[in-house]
Amino acid sequence: QKEVEQDPGPLSVPEGAIVSLNCTYSNSAFQYFMWYRQYSRKGPELLMYTYSSGNKEDGRFTAQVDKSSKYISLFIRDSQPSDSATYLCAMSADTNAGKSTFGDGTTLTVKP
Amino acid sequence: DAGITQSPRYKITETGRQVTLMCHQTWSHSYMFWYRQDLGHGLRLIYYSAAADITDKGEVSDGYVVSRSKTENFPLTLESATRSQTSVYFCASKEWLNTGELFFGEGSRLTVL
User: Fold this and answer.
1) pLDDT higher than 70, residue B59
2) Which of A45, A100, A103, B23 has the CA that lies 20 to 30 A from A89?
3) Phi/psi of residue B28, each to 5°?
4) Structural contact between residues A50 and A56, judged by C-beta atoms closer than 8 angstroms
5) Are the CB atoms for A65 and A92 separated by under 8 Å?
6) Each residue's pLDDT tens digit, B19-45
7) Looking at residue A95, what is its pLDDT?
8) Closest Cα of chain B to A44: distance in Å?
């Protein structure tokens, strides 16, 4: 079983919809939780970063971490066609030399 | 320009040939990583380096070799390419151990015939 499981998708939503992307994990040592966005034929770019549990908001994006349930989410409000991309969750711990473990990614398409 | 540069961006080779993918970063980040990305497997770590001359294996290191004689360069070599190594390879760096953010290059798309 993988350390990080991500809802596979693909996901297709109309413009303006609220999108929820989710990951679960099994390693309780994970402390750093990231969401990367990857456009087609590009490298991933960091979108949201959270340390430990809690919520973090940045514009239309909200990241939630529930360490008790080992569950993280990314919410996108008022989704736009420009949000169409693959979203990757990633996690790391102080104990693993800074290595990040990634989910497989969820491909999102926002239709105008 | 500052950032991570990977070369070549596209490469086609034959089974058994040696291939080297180059990675150069201009930030002087201590930590560098090589990932491969395949459908159904996400990003998997091949090798990482904490500093010049310090490297260690990731989860899928068989068939790959790395070196890091200078902080800014982290080449990845496929000693004898196999078809299963057809993939998109991403180099990444991070400044500090205990932060999450990885900075990725644009990727090198390798096809092994």
Assistant:
1) yes
2) B23
3) 65, 30
4) yes
5) no
6) 999 999 998 888 999 999 998 778 999
7) 66
8) 6
